[in-house]
Design goal:
Length: about 325
């Protein structure tokens, strides 16, 4: 199904996240980082402080130094107020709306080509894994980038719990969807948000299931209580608020492919030399400084992942 929409990424290049808006936002966020709008009682303070989360005692987790990044960590106030979460609207400014996202009860369904389908409660899942912090780059296909200290656990641990059959080649991930929470103008989209990885990608050590950030449980607008971070791929591959992992022998069609198959594909590995049909991918804009920086192949994670794609020359690996 190809849906035509004059919305978000469907807009011409010049209309995608106008840079002037970022710049205004940066000024605001500098203020936020300095504490001026973080005063107790402001609505912003409510969004940043994770309250009533039964997993709060698990944070902060110890940082794993293997995944350091030479760039500065994006201030929390920026990473939690400039978001893509289309379930709540197509603007970047949906953090207030995203507060409607429920966090508990939260069940994660594991099904498809597995030894035994199962449903795990998020708090039971959190008991069964060892949380760690990893500082990862994040590169959106729209050309903005940030560096976030995510807390979570390797996706490999979840794949092991799932015990997929040898016939399983892919894992399809589904995000939470409640039609009542989606604004009227967003109901035309092909919900739920779906993404997929190969089993080899999902078990690569970089694939990280995120439950927290900045030393606290994850904010709702960043995809609480469980999201993916696959930092060598464009950000849309990292689905938020995940509720279902289905193991399959068929390559899953992802949300953005369904919306616009001419522009978005399955692999979506970061590559500065392969342009998006409507813009170059050579440069990215660092969210909190507005600085233009060169984009790296696999977002700088080639040593971890390049081998996954050797010999796949017939595939559109970078779309
Ligand atoms: N997951 C869901 N369910 N819905 C979304 O709209 N947007 C994706 C990804 N995961 C999205 C999603 C895109 S395009 C990006 S760049 C990242 O989330 C943004 O993550 P952040 O808001 O935490 O920076």
């Amino acid at each position: 199904m190809l849906i035509r929409m004059a919305n978000g990424w469907e807009l011409p290049d010049s209309a995608v996240t106008p840079e002037a808006a970022w710049l205004d936002r940066r000024t605001l966020m500098r203020g936020a980082a300095a504490g001026s709008i973080l005063a107790a009682g402001s609505p912003f303070a409510g969004a940043v402080a994770a309250v009533d989360d039964p997993s709060a005692h698990l944070y902060p987790a110890k940082r794993n130094g293997e995944y350091s990044v030479e760039r500065e960590i994006t201030p929390e106030a920026v990473a939690t107020t400039f978001n893509n979460f289309y379930e709540f609207g197509s603007s970047k400014d949906i953090w207030r709306e995203a507060q409607a996202q429920p966090l508990r009860p939260w069940q994660v369904r594991i099904d498809g080509l597995v030894e035994q389908p199962k449903t795990l409660d998020i708090d039971e899942l959190l008991q069964r894994v060892a949380l760690e912090e990893r500082v990862y780059r994040h590169r959106c296909v729209e050309r903005w980038s940030m560096v976030a200290p995510w807390t979570g656990f390797p996706m490999r641990a979840l794949v092991e719990m799932a015990a997929p059959l040898s016939s399983a080649k892919y894992v399809r991930m589904e995000s939470y969807f409640d039609a009542n929470l989606v604004p009227r103008n967003m109901r035309i989209y092909p919900w739920p948000y779906v993404e997929g990885l190969t089993i080899a990608e999902a078990t690569n050590e970089l694939a990280f299931l995120v439950t927290g950030a900045y030393g606290k449980p994850l904010e709702k607008q960043n995809g609480a209580p469980l999201r993916l971070a696959a930092p060598w791929k464009y950000g849309f591959k990292s689905g938020k608020s995940l509720v279902r992992f289905s193991f399959t022998d068929e390559r899953p069609e992802n949300f953005w492919q369904t919306v616009n198959a001419r522009e978005y594909g399955f692999w979506a590995n970061v590559n500065p030399d392969v342009a998006h049909p409507r813009w170059s991918q050579k440069i990215e804009t660092e969210l909190h400084t507005g600085e233009k920086l060169p984009t790296s192949l696999y977002n700088g994670y080639g040593p971890w992942v390049a081998d996954l794609y050797s010999g796949m020359s017939g595939e559109q690996l970078f779309v």
